[in-house]
Design brief:
single chain; 395 residues; seven-stranded mixed β-sheet; 18 strands; binds flavin-adenine dinucleotide
Length: 395
């Protein structure tokens, strides 16, 4: 019987591709009627790109990604700039894989094409899953239309509001963080030439920060602005706001920030919720991957990377065919749990670092940035993340 995957997002499709490449049969059930271009930019660090390359996706990704030369920190009001770290060739050589920025829709399409090349009918659309049963010998997945689907194992990659997580582990642990994120895309052609520099910028200020980088061969500019605000609590990728409301959230910020906001095609607003990870991700023949398992705040840019790592480790564990399926899924649980919990906690700590009151005035800000983002501290903070190799980690 096939392995059943709920959700054709980044985690579900990575798992599907890695499993198909290892000779497993998979079926992916996705609630959306169509797989469209949704979302904005995602950052893929070496720990994610090494998996995508191992899956044979390098050439397709190079067609659509942007590989920045480095990252900078800028101060919210004066625009003073500090180098954060080099990316580009230097980073690819150090970690053995590149750091790149990509539109989520482009990454999604690359994964869809690769899955369909191996199994054209692997992804079933308009298939909302409502729950499942595990009788110890097989699983039965239930769709909203009442149809039962049988499989050997169930992989829940149904994202941050996972129904399968709810069934396995009960209620959600989500808590509002007091932060709201604005997201938007801008055609680079609409911006003054100074914005076409291929670097990622983290603007830091008291009570807010802004992340900027180029996407899609340098044709699109990605804007994410996170502010402390308590009147918007909807956790959604698709809720729209206005440019005026977005601009009002950044009073006194540098003119570059306001130039960007004026040019955002459609701003989206998204309340940031934090969650504790569960003590485990696997029960019997069912397991969780990606945001369903360990939804994270975006401050370490590791949500998509963790989902990609999960997909690879899970496929490797499922290929230990001498073991019973529940034991293979338990191996996956053991290998992934501590790393993903540490990343989720690290992202929450990073939020405090980005929003420190010391950043309000230029003098205090310089000392704070020097202490928090010097080369040694940055290496300690990121090396263990980027060096992880899901293709070889002991299972
Ligand atoms: C529309 C959308 C836009 C996004 N935009 C961004 C962005 O701009 N930047 C960013 O960093 N991250 C974005 N993300 C989140 C990012 O993709 C994830 O945080 C990360 O990649 C982890 O991937 P995942 O596979 O766990 O979850 P996701 O990529 O969120 O995928 C989950 C999938 O499961 C499907 N699903 C959910 N419930 C069911 C159900 N009951 N039955 C069947 N299918 C179901 C969803 O439709 C979705 O396709 C977005 C997610 C979505 C869904």
């Amino acid at each position: 019987m096939p392995i059943l995957i709920v959700g054709a997002g980044i985690g579900g499709l990575t798992a599907a591709l890695a499993l198909l490449q290892r000779g497993h049969d998979v079926e992916v059930y996705e609630q959306a009627e169509q797989l469209g271009e949704l979302g904005a930019g995602v950052q893929i660090s070496a720990n994610g790109s090494r998996v995508l390359f191992a899956l044979g996706l390098e050439a397709a990704l190079r067609e659509v990604w942007c590989e920045p030369a480095g990252k900078e920190i800028r101060l919210w009001n004066t625009g003073e700039t500090w180098k954060l770290f080099d990316l580009g060739a230097e980073s690819a050589a150090r970690y053995g894989a590149p750091y790149f920025m990509i539109h989520r829709g482009d990454l999604h399409q690359v994964l869809i094409d690769a899955v369909r090349a191996l199994k054209p009918d692997a992804i079933r659309l308009g298939a909302r899953c409502t729950g499942f049963e595990d009788d110890g010998r097989s699983v039965t997945l239930h769709l909203a239309n009442g149809e039962p689907i049988n499989g050997d194992a169930l992989i829940a990659a149904d994202g941050v509001h996972s129904v399968i997580r709810k069934q396995l582990f009960g209620g959600d642990t989500a808590q509002f963080t007091g932060c709201v994120a604005w997201r938007g895309l801008i055609p680079v052609a609409k911006l003054p030439p100074r914005f076409a520099r291929n670097v990622g910028v983290n603007w830091v200020g008291p009570g807010g920060h802004v992340i900027n980088y180029l996407l899609r061969r340098g044709e699109l500019f990605n804007f994410v602005g996170i502010v402390e605000r308590s009147d918007w609590r909807v956790e959604s990728w698709t809720d729209k706001g206005t440019r005026e409301e977005c601009a009002a959230d950044f009073p006194g910020w540098h003119e570059d920030i306001h130039e960007l906001i004026r040019n955002i095609e459609q701003p989206y607003k998204w309340a940031l919720l934090s969650r504790d990870t569960f003590g485990r991700y696997t029960i019997g023949r069912a397991t969780l991957v990606g945001d369903a398992a360990h939804a994270t705040l975006p401050m370490l840019a590791q949500g998509a990377n963790m989902a990609i790592e999960d997909g690879m480790v899970l496929a490797r564990c499922m290929s230990l065919t001498e073991l019973p399926i529940a034991v293979r899924l338990e191996r996956y649980n053991v290998v992934r749990h501590d790393r993903t919990r540490k990343l989720v906690q690290g992202a929450a700590e990073m939020a405090k670092r980005f929003h420190n009151p010391a950043l309000a005035e230029a003098a205090g800000a310089k000392a704070y940035v020097d202490a928090q983002w010097n080369e040694t501290t940055v290496k300690q903070r990121y090396d263990w993340i980027f060096e992880y190799d899901a293709t070889t980690v002991a299972i």
